[in-house]
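Hi there,

I know you've been waiting on this one. I reran it after we fixed the sequence typo, so this is the corrected version. Both the input and the resulting structure follow.
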Amino acid sequence: MKVYVILAAGGSGARMHTSVNKVLLSLSGCTVLLRSLRIFDHIIDGLVLVCRPEDEEAIQAEVALGALSFPVTIVHGGATRQQSVWNGLKSLLADPEDIVLVHDAARCLASPDLVRTLIRTCMETGACVPGVPAVNTVKECDPAGRIVRTPDRSALFEVQTPQAFRYQDLCDANLRAGEDGFQATDDASLLEHAGYPVFVVPGSRMNIKITEKEDLMIASAWLRSNAPAAPRVGMGYDVHRLVEGRKLILCGIEIPHVFGLLGHSDADVAIHALMDAMLGAAALGDIGHCFPDTDPQYKGISSVILLEKVNDMIRSAGYTLINVDLTIAAQKPRLAPYIGQMREKIAETLAVDVSCISIKATTTEKLGFEGREEGISAQAVCLLL
């Protein structure tokens, strides 16, 4: 079973009084869209992003910046949200029992924990949505504004997204709605119309939809209140043995040499030290815990790929990388000619300016295992905010 997301990002900035799609607006240094995408990092198998044609170029740039763990397919929306989601659903090559979550990109404060809860519940029930109990009295009015009914508030819930469904059920419900000419206000309504049971799981009052300017202010205040209290410093250290028959890879750059480093992955000792520094600063463990050498999926893997995953973990934990200082200790080969390429590679991988990356190379004056050319070591220090 796989899990997919359809992310509806086809809105405009009309109620924001801006010509820019509201999901492309900045919220505390990051766009609303990118924050929504990162909710699903390391949880799902793929995402279909539905947008307006005129927003596609800007949205592609945000997706690239995210360095996400899942593939993203961009499709164009329709005249209504219901048609847009249907366009996204038709582009999925999913199995009937796969799970599809439909999410509004404007709800960028939904949590990964909520996503996991929805997936688990959907596996059991077939369809579920997050909701919070209504706290205000709700009135039903006629076209003239006269109150005709006051529903029992104790039975009312304010429903949010993501909403989770079995793929085939959601397809069938959309087809049924098309046949009946039924227009729904959310995807759960389509399932209800088709006769499927839908269950509510606890949502969060902070899972607000960015619609008005005031919503941006509320979201920004919440992010500030939940931001890390102080900068975090991490230190990493790693060693690998030099052997014949292996490539020498340092900071993602292949260095010509008669020996290479031995390891389960590509044994990039410099990136390994950097990853440990980043993980340590955020108290997320170490590379041995996150990428064990007993796992065959990491056999021979590029450490650049692992560094991207660590950067995703750091961002998901709410941190931003400020700078890196990395030292490589090797008697041979001479690394100075490659330092510039190394800095650029690390900066590109971490999506930061190259000025944030310092890399130094040193010998040990022929002392120790580095001096005897038995191995190479690396030390890294980083700052997270």
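Quick highlight: Residues 112-125 form the longest helix (14 residues).

Best,
R. S.
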